[in-house]
Each structure stands twice: as C-alpha cells, then as structure tokens.
Design a protein that fits this description.
The complex is a heterodimer. By secondary structure, chain A is an alpha+beta fold. Chain A is built from 18 helices and 10 strands. Chain A starts with 15 loop residues before the first helix and ends with a strand. In chain B, strands 2-1-5-3-4 form a 5-stranded mixed beta sheet. Classes of the chains: A alpha+beta, B alpha+beta.
Chain lengths: 413, 106
C-alpha cells in the first residue's frame, strides 16, 4: 500500500507559476518513485505516458461509478467534490455522454458518431475557410489584434453550431454558456463557480428546448434534427437529447480555442518552426498534432478503479481515484524524443491529448480540421506574424490550458 | 510467430513479427509503421488505424462487428478491403499476410 506523503514536489496547480509553465512541475512529479498524491481531490496523479495510457485504455477504469452506490453515497461523493445542489447541472451536465459508461455510453455515442468521422467532417472545410476569410477581412488593417478574442474565439463555436444546426448569431451566447459550464470542472470549486455553471446550464436548456421544438415542426438537414428523430425512434430520451446537444456544443468549444491560442503562441516562440511550416505547408497535419502534444488543451481527466489494480508497478485498491495528466504524459521522455522541443515535423506523434479508449474525443477530426484551415490560411496570407505580448497570461488550474489573450500583429503578404 | 508485411503508400515494405493475441494495429505500431496512427489506442473509436487487407487474406479474417462497420463507412478512402487494424486479432493463419497502409488517416 503506497504512502500518501507528497514527496518533495511543490505542486500548486492554481498558482501563477504553474499557469505560466506547468512542465517543470510535471517533470518533477514524473521523476518520483511513486505517483504524487493530491490531497485536495484524494487522487493519485499519473504523469508517465505509459501509466496514463494504460489507465485510459483499461475498461475496468471508469469516470463514473455511481451505478452501485446508494443515493446517500452518491450525495456524499458529490458533496465531497462540491457538485451537489445544482439541479439543472446535475440533470444535463453531470449525466451525459462523457459521464456515462458501458451500454448507455455506447448507445448515446452511436446516435452521433457518424457526423464526426473523417469523411463527414471534411465537408465542413469550406465553411471553416469561409468564416476565417470573413474574420480576417475585418482584421486586416489593425496595428495589433487579440488572436483569441478577435479571431480564434469565433471559429470553433460557429462551426460546431453549424454541424448541429444552431443559428450563427447565437455563437457568442453558446460560447459563454460553454465556458461557464466547463470552468466548473476545474479544481478549487467555489459557490460562485457553482452558481455560474448552474445558471448557464438552465439558460442553455431553455435555449435548446426552443431549437428542438422548431425541428419537431420543420425538420432540417442538421444533427439536431437527426438526434430529435433518434429520440422519436426510441434511441434516447428527452433529457439525454438535451444533455447530448449541450455536450457537443460545449466539448469542442473552449478546448479548440485554447489549442488555437497555444498553437499560435508556440509558432511565435519558435520562429524557426514557423518559417519551416511556411516553407513546407505539407507539414501542416504533423504541425497540428505537435500543437496538441505540446500544450494539451484539456490536461486533466480522471478514472476510478472498479477493482484492485496494479499501475506502473504499484498496487491500488478498488475505489482508487487516478488523475490522468495528459499534459504531463505528452512531455514524457520515455515516449517522446526531446519532448520539450516543439517540432512541426514530429512523426510519429502518438500523443494522448484526445484521451484513449471508448471516451476518445469524438470531435478530434473536427478540432484538427479547424486548426489546419486556420493555420494554413494565416501562414499563406501574412508575410509576418509578430508577438506583441512579452509573456501572454495562461488560464489557471489543471483542467484547461490556453492563453487568456494573445496580442499579435499580422502583416499582409 | 506469424509475420505480417505492411506496404506504405510510397511503396516501402516492412515485414514485422506479430505476437499471437495482439492486434494487427499493435503489430504495426511495434513495427514502426507511422501511417497506422491508432489514436484511441484500439477502442474502435477513432478510425485512424484504418488499413487495407489484400484479397484472399481479407476473407480469412474474423467477421466485422457492428461498431467496426459504422466506423469503416466513414474513414478516409474506404475500399472493400478496408478494415480497422485494432479489431484484427493476430493468429497463425495470418503468417505472410499483406496489409496496405492508406495515404491518410485524417
């Protein structure tokens, strides 16, 4: 049985230092003889690629283990994690595709997965190019722009909204709801954060109800209609339909914006790589993969062990909670040569930013297509891109990673 | 140990030993075949371990599950020989099997 002493690592994931650069802390954690035990969440933090991957792929490790718990036990667990007393959030967010397992999960994923396969996602390319062109037209003559607020933030939400079928003019509201709900999952939960997430969920629900009602009367050629029809055919119920719609709108929203930001920042920090990518546009797909590896936008997930288990040579009892630190795993020298080097030609690049196993990111192809079109366009159209911010500030915490803003200057070719 | 020959889009041939009970996907990764990406680690969830199993070899493979059929419809460049290598369990009958790697997985 492992000793829960934290060893000699100064792990302060809510600190400014950690936000600026978590990787030295991750490296220190990776070097320990056993995983770091994070007291606040009673979780063993896995940072080695092999361990993180093994747990992500292990079918006996689940995100949610409530099936065998009594109502009292569920409430006690929720209270410990401060996710209780949030009726809308509990109904539509805490139960969802991501939070389900086994047959329920397979059934829900099956309703939507076709829309996210490579061939079908490719159909969004023209629409992505379209909105990128429109946004860039308005930014052409500015001395400097915020790559995030003025550009990146507007793309993923618009595209996923398009896939689902929600009107373009609602993009901004969708983004706000998504952020408020996703930020709740971060560590250090406060009542204010809970209220924000609960209100966002309720408003989002009311909005979706209107959208779905429209399709009852007038079916459209979009995923919301397909999901509505699946509900009529008995494949999912009303709550699951709302929850799944929210999940899809929410999942690829902030995370794509974050990796667009950190990807752009990496190119700016390593101008030789930007030059290389400009000179060899055929490297775009590997460059995008490297951006995902270098700064995983969603660096912290978890699993519960449903039986006694051995991970990385250590034994753990049933019920153990593991932290999967994808951001740390993606810099593990045991998996990647020169892991701290940003290399746009890195191949193979078997990073774990999209997770693994049955919950593997449904939107992975769309996320990469967004990145590809955006960076191809930027590098083609602008002779230089300069960083105007000395040290861009990154978001705090463990569950998201991306710059809050990124001031740049674009010079047309 | 059965050996499997992987042929990449540029014509490069790599013959690699495959352990009984592992998947063809795993054999590809172990053999350094970069064109088999296998992002989800073999959970039939991503479609990036897509491969083409030549002619008669394809006929001796196990049946295609519902999930695999679903994913295969929408991989890049699907063909009748398409299979997801993570769903193919290595066995002795695969000795000498030829597997072609698609031009792109994404």
């Amino acid at each position: 049985m492992l000793d829960k002493t934290s060893g000699s690592v100064d792990f302060r994931p809510l600190s400014e230092d950690f936000a600026r650069d978590p990787y030295p802390t991750y490296a220190a954690m990776r070097k320990l003889d056993q995983p770091y035990f994070y007291e606040d969440e009673q979780t063993w933090m896995l940072t080695r690629f092999a361990d993180v991957q093994a747990v992500a792929l292990d079918k006996t490790m689940l995100r949610v283990v409530e099936d065998n718990l009594t109502d009292a036990e569920i409430l006690s667990r929720k209270t410990m994690m401060n996710m209780h007393d949030m009726p809308n959030h509990e109904r539509f967010v805490q139960e969802s595709l991501l939070e389900s397992e086994g047959e329920t999960h397979a059934r829900l994923r099956k309703v939507v997965f076709r829309e996210f396969t490579p061939a079908l996602i490719e159909r969004q390319r023209a629409a992505i190019q379209d909105i990128v062109d429109t946004l860039l037209k308005n930014l052409a003559d500015k001395p400097q722009i915020d790559f995030i607020a003025d550009f990146a933030a507007h793309v993923p939400g618009y595209i996923i909204g398009r896939v689902l079928g929600v009107p373009a003019e609602d993009s901004a509201r969708l983004r706000k709801w998504s952020e408020d709900i996703v930020s709740f999952w971060n560590i250090g939960r406060t009542q204010a954060g809970k209220d924000l997430a609960e209100n966002a969920t309720r408003e989002f629900y009311e909005y979706l109800t209107v959208q779905l009602e429209k399709r009852k009367n007038v079916p459209q050629d979009d995923l919301l209609t397909k999901m509505f029809e699946a509900k009529m055919a008995g494949y999912l119920n009303e709550d699951e339909l709302v929850s799944l719609s929210m999940q899809i709108l929410r999942a690829g929203h902030g995370s794509t914006i974050d990796v667009l930001g950190s990807g752009m920042h990496a190119l700016l920090q390593y101008p030789d790589q930007m030059a290389r990518l400009k000179a060899q546009p055929e490297l775009m797909k590997t460059a995008v993969q490297e951006m995902f590896r270098f700064n995983s936008p969603l660096p912290y997930f978890h699993r519960f062990a449903t039986q006694d288990v051995t991970v990385g040579g250590h034994d753990y009892p049933e019920g153990t909670r593991f932290g999967l630190l994808y951001g740390a795993a993606n810099r593990d020298p045991a998996q990647f040569e020169n892991p701290e080097t940003f290399d746009v030609g890195r191949s193979p690049n078997r990073h774990i930013s999209f997770g693994g196993g049955t919950h593997f990111c449904l939107g992975n192809h769309l996320a990469r297509l967004d990145m590809e079109v955006i960076f191809s366009t930027l590098l083609e159209r602008f002779s230089s891109i300069d960083l105007m911010d000395e040290v861009p500030e990154y978001k705090a915490g463990l569950s998201v990673r991306g710059p809050k803003s990124l001031m740049i200057r674009l010079k047309e070719a | 140990m059965p050996t499997i020959k992987f042929i990449e889009p540029d014509g490069t041939e790599t013959t690699t030993e495959a352990a009984i009970g592992e998947t063809v996907m795993q054999a590809a990764i172990n053999g350094g075949i970069a064109g088999i990406i296998a992002e989800c680690g073999g959970a039939c969830a991503c479609g990036t371990c897509h491969c083409y199993v030549d002619g008669a070899w394809g006929e001796s493979l196990g049946p295609v599950s519902d999930n695999e059929v679903g994913m295969l419809e929408f991989v890049i460049d699907p063909m009748t020989e398409s299979r997801l290598s993570c769903q193919l369990m290595v066995n002795e009958k695969m000795d000498g099997m030829v597997v072609r790697v698609p031009k792109s997985q994404t």
